[in-house]
Structure formats: structure tokens, C-alpha cells
Design brief:
Elements (H helix, E strand, L loop, with lengths): L2 H9 L13 H24 L2 H24 L5 H25 L3 H22 L6 H27 L8 H4 L1 E2 L2 E2 H30 L6 H26 L4
Antiparallel strand pairs: 1-2
């Protein structure tokens, strides 16, 4: 090589994360968008097909999404195909759920979408400002509260299946505190937990980029964000439906 060629090579900027196959914020954003696009397509299917088929697809999406969520969570290496399949199945479930609840309480679907985006945006701003962080103490509280919520949800589901509670939302609407359905308090708690889960997702992404994690793990980050956004949307639309229950 000539001296000019060597000098030109030395003057080139250092290789960035994208050039060395490392995880970047752009990777996470693009893969998360891909998951959400697939999710929206799945939701569109159950929103516009015949009602009977919509219900069947919603059940398939709920069960299939749950199975793939476990598979993707415990899989050692991320699989883009399985993560996108999870997003599609959850889309079928969310579309069917939205169709049912929006038919009972017109407008709750759009309100839930706006609410989900609002919570995501506020949470991201608070995280970027450094005002909210996933400290060890907060993570411990999150784990305890989440386990408690999961136990309540399981008990509620069993009581609804067995017919012990006849209300559409089970214990959430059959029990009231000062005239307010229990589901309102539970829903606010669950939305708070989902919001903090977003903080944990953001923290994990930040640490992964800073540590130079391999690029394929941006799929893991996208999967985590998708799971949390699905949870957040379900809690918001259910809370809105409970609040509209007296309409």
C-alpha cells in the first residue's frame, strides 16, 4: 500500500457496534417495530373475520401465544421466527378481545391503544430523564407484587371457569370497595406493574448496548418489549371495560 492509502485507512472512523455485529438501539427499534407490525396484522384478522371464526382464532392466539412466550423465554438462543410467531398469535388474541369488548363498550379499543402509547411514552421519557430506574429494591417489590397479582388472576380465572362467580370479570366486578369495583384497584396496580416492566426492559436494552451484546440479542429485547406492551394493553382495555360496566 502507498503512504496515501495507509493514511486514508488510518483516517477512517473507528468501527461502531453495527460494524462489529453488536447490539444497537436501532436494531432493537427495528425488530420491535417488526414484531408490532406482525401483531397488528394478526389483530386485523380477528377484527374483520366472521364472529365465530374470530372467537376461535382468539382462543388459538391466547393458547399459542402463551406456549411460545414460555418457549422464547427459556430458549438459550433467540429465534426470530418464533418471536414473530408469538407476536402474530398475540395479535389474534388482542384482536378478538378488542372486538368483544369494543362491541360491548364502543370506543374502548381505541382508548386502550391511546392509553398504551401514552404509558409507553411517559415511561420512556421518565427513564431517559433518569427519574425512574430499576433499582434492586424496586425490582424486589415488582417481583413480589407480580407474583401476588398472578395468584389473584389464577384464582379469579378458576372461579370464573367453575361458575363460582357469574360476573363477566369475576372477582374484579363482584367485589366492591366503597362502591368501586375491586377490578379498578387491581387494574391500576397491574398497569403500574406493566409500566415498571417497561423500565426493566429499557434498562436491559441500555445495559446490552453498553456491554456490546451480540446483535442477535436485539431480538430478545424486542420480544421483551412486545410481551410487556401486550400485557399493558390487556390491563388498560379491561380497566376501561370495568369502568364502563354501568353504561
Amino acid at each position: 500500500m502507498t503512504n496515501e492509502q495507509l493514511q486514508q485507512m488510518y483516517n477512517q472512523p473507528a468501527a461502531g457496534p453495527a460494524d462489529t455485529g453488536r447490539m444497537t438501539y436501532d436494531d432493537v427499534i427495528m425488530k420491535t417495530v417488526a414484531c408490532l407490525v406482525v401483531l397488528v396484522i394478526g389483530a386485523g384478522i380477528t377484527l374483520f373475520v366472521a364472529p365465530a371464526l374470530s372467537t376461535m382464532l382468539m382462543v388459538v392466539g391466547a393458547l399459542g401465544g402463551f406456549v411460545l412466550a414460555l418457549v422464547n423465554t427459556f430458549k438459550k438462543q433467540p429465534s426470530p421466527a418464533l418471536i414473530l410467531a408469538y407476536a402474530g398469535l398475540e395479535g389474534l388474541f388482542l384482536g378478538g378481545l378488542t372486538r368483544i369488548l369494543d362491541g360491548m363498550y364502543p370506543g374502548v379499543g381505541l382508548q386502550a391503544v391511546i392509553g398504551t402509547l401514552a404509558v409507553f411514552g411517559v415511561t420512556l421519557v421518565l427513564f431517559k430523564s433518569g427519574k425512574v430506574r430499576a433499582t434492586p429494591k424496586m425490582v424486589r417489590f415488582f417481583m413480589i407484587a407480580t407474583i401476588g397479582y398472578a395468584v389473584f388472576a389464577l384464582i379469579n380465572l378458576v372461579m370464573m371457569w367453575t361458575g363460582a362467580v357469574q360476573e363477566p370479570f369475576g372477582l374484579r366486578t363482584s367485589i366492591t370497595i366503597a362502591g368501586i369495583p375491586l377490578g379498578v384497584f387491581i387494574g391500576i396496580l397491574a398497569i403500574g406493574l406493566a409500566a415498571f416492566s417497561l423500565i426493566m426492559d429499557f434498562t436491559s436494552i441500555e445495559e446490552g448496548v453498553r456491554a456490546g451484546a451480540p446483535e442477535r440479542y436485539s431480538w430478545v429485547a424486542a420480544f421483551g418489549l412486545t410481551v410487556t406492551l401486550v400485557w399493558l394493553y390487556v390491563e388498560i382495555i379491561r380497566l376501561l371495560a370495568i369502568l364502563r360496566g354501568d353504561d
